[in-house]
Give the backbone structure.
Amino acid sequence: MKKIKLAYVGGGSKEWAYVFMNDLALAEDLGGEIALYDIDLEAAKLNQTLGRMINNHPETKSQWDYEVYADLDSALQGADFVAISILPGTFQEMESDVHAPEAYGIYQTVGDTTGPGGVLRSMRTVPIYEEFARAIKRNCPSAWVLNFTNPMSICVQTLYDVFPEIKAFGCCHEVFHTQNFLCRVLFELKGVNVTREEIFTDVAGINHFTWVTEAKYQDIDLLGLLKEFMEKFPEGCNERGAVDAYRTDPFQSANLVKLDLFRRYGVLGAAGDRHLVEFMNPNWYLKDPEMIASFKFARTSVSLRIAKRERRIQNLLSLRDGKSPLEVKKSTEEAVDLIQALLGRKKIVSNVNLPNQGQMPGFPQGAIVETNAVFSHDSVRPVVSKPLPPLVQAMVLNHLYNLETLYQGIKTRDLQAIFRAFLQQPLCANLRIEEAKALFRTMIEATKAYLEPYFAVNSF
Amino acid sequence: MKKIKLAYVGGGSKEWAYVFMNDLALAEDLGGEIALYDIDLEAAKLNQTLGRMINNHPETKSQWDYEVYADLDSALQGADFVAISILPGTFQEMESDVHAPEAYGIYQTVGDTTGPGGVLRSMRTVPIYEEFARAIKRNCPSAWVLNFTNPMSICVQTLYDVFPEIKAFGCCHEVFHTQNFLCRVLFELKGVNVTREEIFTDVAGINHFTWVTEAKYQDIDLLGLLKEFMEKFPEGCNERGAVDAYRTDPFQSANLVKLDLFRRYGVLGAAGDRHLVEFMNPNWYLKDPEMIASFKFARTSVSLRIAKRERRIQNLLSLRDGKSPLEVKKSTEEAVDLIQALLGRKKIVSNVNLPNQGQMPGFPQGAIVETNAVFSHDSVRPVVSKPLPPLVQAMVLNHLYNLETLYQGIKTRDLQAIFRAFLQQPLCANLRIEEAKALFRTMIEATKAYLEPYFAVNSF
Amino acid sequence: MKKIKLAYVGGGSKEWAYVFMNDLALAEDLGGEIALYDIDLEAAKLNQTLGRMINNHPETKSQWDYEVYADLDSALQGADFVAISILPGTFQEMESDVHAPEAYGIYQTVGDTTGPGGVLRSMRTVPIYEEFARAIKRNCPSAWVLNFTNPMSICVQTLYDVFPEIKAFGCCHEVFHTQNFLCRVLFELKGVNVTREEIFTDVAGINHFTWVTEAKYQDIDLLGLLKEFMEKFPEGCNERGAVDAYRTDPFQSANLVKLDLFRRYGVLGAAGDRHLVEFMNPNWYLKDPEMIASFKFARTSVSLRIAKRERRIQNLLSLRDGKSPLEVKKSTEEAVDLIQALLGRKKIVSNVNLPNQGQMPGFPQGAIVETNAVFSHDSVRPVVSKPLPPLVQAMVLNHLYNLETLYQGIKTRDLQAIFRAFLQQPLCANLRIEEAKALFRTMIEATKAYLEPYFAVNSF
Amino acid sequence: MKKIKLAYVGGGSKEWAYVFMNDLALAEDLGGEIALYDIDLEAAKLNQTLGRMINNHPETKSQWDYEVYADLDSALQGADFVAISILPGTFQEMESDVHAPEAYGIYQTVGDTTGPGGVLRSMRTVPIYEEFARAIKRNCPSAWVLNFTNPMSICVQTLYDVFPEIKAFGCCHEVFHTQNFLCRVLFELKGVNVTREEIFTDVAGINHFTWVTEAKYQDIDLLGLLKEFMEKFPEGCNERGAVDAYRTDPFQSANLVKLDLFRRYGVLGAAGDRHLVEFMNPNWYLKDPEMIASFKFARTSVSLRIAKRERRIQNLLSLRDGKSPLEVKKSTEEAVDLIQALLGRKKIVSNVNLPNQGQMPGFPQGAIVETNAVFSHDSVRPVVSKPLPPLVQAMVLNHLYNLETLYQGIKTRDLQAIFRAFLQQPLCANLRIEEAKALFRTMIEATKAYLEPYFAVNSF
């Protein structure tokens, strides 16, 4: 049995930590230490308690020493793996990120990746990631670093820019849902019932704006089935449930945007509709609440997120206190599988965010892109993706150059440069320049508690 | 004295032909045949008459045989140089190109390069240029081809796509005006009075959306003077005359857009403000007539163009009939100088539109770009331009991929593909997808007389 | 059970066919037709007989219809897979290829890939492959084409140049031996006993001149072990047997060249020493027989090949006649596994020859390179390789530009261009220009029976 | 009149300084200080004396203050231009560089750029240039730096690597001779008598291994004349004098190598034959003295260089002492013209060594290459060159990767890495690895006086 040390930065997580501890418990021939680090020490301790309870569960295969650290360096010291999943700021900042732009007619469905919300969140996140990168360099330079935090691209970019030799990559499960959707298409048209691991997709793009350029089950061309599928399901189709489930659960959708994009470009958007729409002209799918409803997806409000987390905390406390029974079961997440692959126990081909080193020809070298990669013995090698159609390539490149400008602006603490990237967000396209300035000013003011350590907020 | 044959396609021109014949008359040690070809034979004959009158003028240095041809092949047969300057369609089509989009809140200032007008004009132009390219290949494959027709980029692209060995380039004087503006800046701040030939500018971009990335007079950094210049001229400055001349002559402006872009990006747009604005977010400078006026530039209406041409025709007839005296004088155009350079009489470094072969690193190979080139003995070699700032690069790339999609769509006569390029025009950014479709339908319907030979107009 | 048609071009093979039929017999859930095509019809029929005998063997899992075709089109018609493994010309031509250069002090160890022998063999092969490509386009344009013929690179290049949409790739097992060698290293130094499938290697280069840039078993860096390994085995090490087995079997070696190259460049040549040496300065490892012996590898003479084949034919006839017992067993070849992967039954990451589409950044697009690729459902996607050291990159690039010149020369039947590529072969480096011409003349004369249909042999 | 400060590093030069001072004396509207710096202070003072004498000559147009500095920083302080032309080491080291390899059958014709001599000279030069770059950064970061020292490529590479913002370029007149040769071709075949400034050549490659890819006079294709020229002049042609002048002056040749290469590759080597041959297979033109003589070029021995310099010193002293009359006349060098161009008085298109930024597509970014560039107001912009034939590209790339390895080796003071670059020099191609090692050891030992401050010479 292999013993490893895994440092979990953001180990006080209410959502993903429990899922991850479950998957770790079911790992074969693996064990060691999980070093929980969080600025919310109590939250980390709760996960420690739950982790230890999981250790005692009869289904559990692997034992883990859950340790809580108050300082980052100790948590990272000698780690073999580092998982990072943090929330930069609080729901108060997120409230501004997501909802402040609504006063200007900007309806963000997610607000954490791109658009005004993505820019502001990046401003809070990058300075923290600069410190993470330096700490990893100091304490565990050979560790594999798995990033789960959004905005994904700029987090991974920060890690590589500060510590170029880092072995980091970014994991995101949005592509998985699109793969599930393709399995549904296969089932509906061919009666074949398979899981996403049983099909092959080639993906290319950037996180949350990734595209399936080829999809195959055996010799069946899954993208080739979509025309017939759209005729059969003119009202759309939700791979997770009812076609109108988005009304109560904004994380679901009818995939109508995805299909409309496929009709236009011939490639399939590989993220939830709520993500895809934020990267494009807002007058196409996000002009107003009616248009949004007509395409059968929904916005995630921060109040809903707050309520959801509150329920989650109650669930965790209930588990801790023995009021609800603790079950141990495998999730659909891949993190533990990727760790096993990096330990040399299997080869996995999956989508991942990495600096471009040839996997997306025609895109700038070093830009953070999302494509497939081969995960195996202590190695992650990207797979060359098929080319995107020119108009999609143009949209992706626009975001890459925006991101580059945004990153350099944050790195140099230059609010004017950051504003230039803000102005050129597709989601800000309907604003006059002066309106964009006013909105940016409002948003940095509303979140200044987290910005002032780094930026001269009042100077803008 | 060198004798050449120059075929002038569009030789019935009312504007540029007379200017060109003047410059030809003043060329040193040069002569030969000017083969005028035009679908308007009478117009070509008028120019022939004027040309012969110029031959007899005492200031004239070079004699030219002006011949009118009714068919293209004869005109091109054995030519050493070909100049192409045509109007695809009539003012009736242009009326639709420029003004139909106004019903959708799209205020085009020029309407012949990009945006909805540029797309429609391209649809009329590319099929004609396909024939030009084939005819050049048949009749004068070694000739140098100077293109003056807009939309410049797609005309040059068509020539190279149909006949890859062609020796063609596209000439545009928009950069000259920006150079004149920089001379004005130099004069205002340093008291130095020079002409544009006496400064150096590095340029990069695409036609009408070109950028000066470096400008020097001796060791004075002209871009470095702009901050002070903007402070001194907060109301703008028109290198051709009064700052509000745009009110009566829409070809002039106060350069406020150009300066605002410089403030944002640190590079200077190298075309008239009326051109630059059409390539960017319409909410920045073109949202409504008030915003346009506030930036001190104006729209060129087609009625104004018609009136202008009418006056021009009267002038030419008056010259022909001896009612007004014929003068022969050098223009500020470069065409004859470029011809002299290609004949090996001088070296010229000037801006030109050519397929990218390295002059704009980071841009697709083969895309038509505008940079400097060295013109000399039978050779045009592009000069590597300095890099554009990332956000400007993103805007230029967006147009290049749009153009690629548009060109392939026209080449394959595929209205759906053309519409995709139409939809993604920045000038169409404020439209919903259905609105864009309706506008496109209106515009192809309005200009169908010139489209139906090539496209199944009713099928869209 | 999936039924497929596999066309086997060169199906009269004495070596590989029997191995392949064994692997096919043991394939799971697979069956269909094996269409044997060979210019030696009798040889194909012998394989048909043997194939049918294998069908009757108790260990056999899959039944195959072995059909012999006298014409290529019928064999290919409707095929799902095409395997090509031919010998261009006879042993008489090979005798000239391999041994004629010895008169000039050129000691070829293989003589079928690069060097004078490789050039001559290419001249015989490319015209045949042009016809194969056209026939595949006509008869089975969607088939997957597996090439096994040498010279590998130029065969694959011909297929893609003639039919750009072809789904072809080239398979070679040389890398496997190097992987076995690395397993041996792991065993000798760490006592861990694994097979090549259990380690990971990143490979980059061209066929027979491929390099391992990274090799890992779990988190053990296998290349990092080589320094100690070289100290422990100063006399070299043969992963297949005794260190001096090369004395009797020239296909084996002590890997001393491979290790010497690793010492110099820090990456490990991933082909047999006998292949590697032919791509480099002949004064390093091939100056004379003594130097060759001192590095413990050997030359494969054609007489030895003839004797070997004679024995092989006797073995096959003996099997056919029931004089020796027929066994059915899995080989170490991968062809059937790759077919299973392409049918969607597994994912395989293995080395393969494909046009460069990003997998080797810094190398020309479209050049045939060998790297890893992911084989899965109807898809082969190359993996981006790690960069080669500059001096190795220079050697590989030299061969790629040589190959490009050679290919264009053969394609245009231009003996002068072919000679330019011949002259610049590293193996010809010790020749004066006139000597190179004389040798080339001798070699085309000696093999003219196979060249005259395509080249004006006497004109050189 | 413009006043400038020009720092002349190596200002004690016996050859180029006097020529340069003549050109400076004849410059229009220019004057200022020439800051002479040399480790041989007396030599600098001699040039100062001569410079002042030139000031007093009646033909002189510009007055210059010639100052001698004993330390580099003072000389550079505030300079507008820096010219660097030094001899790294003495003739004693050069004796080893050029002649030591002869014992191994390596006949170097120049021995200062590539091959064993070039490697050793680079080892002495790069550490000095590292200091130059740092001193320029300290004292005159905006100065234009003109390098004339060989090995040109690695000198320019060092300057840019140490101080990336430097405004440096490398000047070499070898291309001029080839242009003169082309003028001779034009005269011989067409009777047209022009100077090199009146033709156009496109050049591409690296210093001393540059190639003319296109040459035109008006519309006459000069490369197209070479076939006829070779027939007319089978014995070759020396643009500077008699065809066998090489017998007494090894700087001349009959251009037979250049023409042989043109016959093979279709492009014309743009350096003296004595330079070109050192970059290629030594068995083609340098196998032995007889072969060298048969191609009508010669080796420059160091004893000849010593004798030549001795005569030169006598001439200078004779001028100083008034024993021979001082004349002031314009040379054929371009340095002063380039300075005038950079001051904005003219535009010049000429060949220059610069980091690749697009001017040679398909070659590594940042590698030092030689192409045309436009020199104008405070700006040097490279011109995109036409592609080289694949086999020439391969030879040039080989040298670029060699240079990269050599430079990194010297930068990190790593003798093993340097040896790897030494071994892979084409001029070392006939050596066994052990012979190459022995020769390298001999050469570093012979020149260790200049190497020991930087390298652990005995450790190899």
Observations:
- Chain B has a mean pLDDT of 97.
- Chain B is about 45% helix and 15% strand.
- Residues 115-139 of chain B form the longest helix (25 residues).
- The radius of gyration of chain B is 22 Å.
